[in-house]
Amino acid sequence: MENLWGKTAFVTGGASGIGLGIAKCCALEGMNVVVVDMRQSAIDEAMKYFETNNQPAIGINLDVTDRDAYIQAVEQAKAKFGNIHVLVNNAGIGCAGGPLWKVSFKEADLAVKVNLTGVLNGIQIIVPHMLEHGEGGHIVSTASKAALLPVPGTALYNVTKSAVVGIMESLAEDLVGTNVGASAFCPGGYETNLGKSSGEVTAALMGDEKQAPPPAGMANGMPEDWINTFADGCWRARCKGN
């Protein structure tokens, strides 16, 4: 996509970290922004930025693994801004560390549910809408450098992020001949709040206080200047060639 002005981006996991950086970049390009996150407190904090800068944005509380709620969130976004043109499947969690045979069934199920099913839900719900409105679009899913170069000691995270790359490569092939494109985003090591957000989401979805550690190479606490740098630069490469 070349012209983003006035179009709408739906960003999951968009209330903090890389997701918030992407949402800010979309706003800087003149897009309407739908900030989707499971943590209402994070949404409330993130929305202050868009309100301060008088940028069109709404926040929606959503568990991306809940398909019925996902459909309702999309309808809410469409009611506010009309058609959705960019889907950013950024919601994900850090996974339990260690070799796969030492990971519990519950931990494995949760990782697959959030990191894979959440991505598939977005594709299955929003891509038909993009193809139907015919105005062009792009889907990008946040994977990880660990999908390409597995990080020792984080097998479950490596596996789920590798699968995200496979999903997006397959989707890109399936969309050939349409005006909708697809890509995977594979960031390397960075400072982020993934550990804190993962712990909150894990506790909510597993019904306990278990805190999932961040994958290797990631630390808690993303500085505000990192977000601003990301917003001013990275996303300006945009999604060329659909």
Question: Could you characterize the architecture of this molecule?
Answer:
The structure is a single chain. This protein is an alpha/beta fold and 242 residues long. It has a single domain (8-232), classed as Rossmann fold (3-Layer(aba) Sandwich). It has helices spanning 17-28, 40-52, 67-81, 105-133, 155-174, 194-206, 224-232, and strands at 8-12, 32-37, 57-61, 86-89, 137-142, 180-185, 190-191, 218-219. Helix 3 (67-81) packs parallel to helix 4 (105-133) and helix 4 runs parallel beside helix 5. Mean pLDDT is 85; it is low at 194-199, 214-222 and 231-241.
Summarize the model shown.
The protein has 242 residues and is of the alpha/beta class.
**Apparent shape:** globular
Radius of gyration: 17 Å
For the record, give the distance between the C-alpha atoms at the N and C termini, rounded to a whole number. 4 Å
Assess the beta-strand content as a share of residues. Answer: 5-15%
Summarize model confidence as the mean pLDDT: 85
| The CATH homologous superfamily | NAD(P)-binding Rossmann-like Domain
Low-confidence stretches: 194-199, 214-222, 231-241
Helix content: 40-55%
Number of strands: 8
In spatial order, strands of the major sheet run 3-2-1-4-5-6
Q: How many helix segments? A: 7
Any idea of the CATH class? Alpha Beta
CATH third-tier fold name: Rossmann fold
What is the H/E string?
Answer: EHEHEHEHEHEEHEH
The CATH architecture? 3-Layer(aba) Sandwich
- Largest sheet: number of strands, sense, barrel closure: 6 strands, parallel
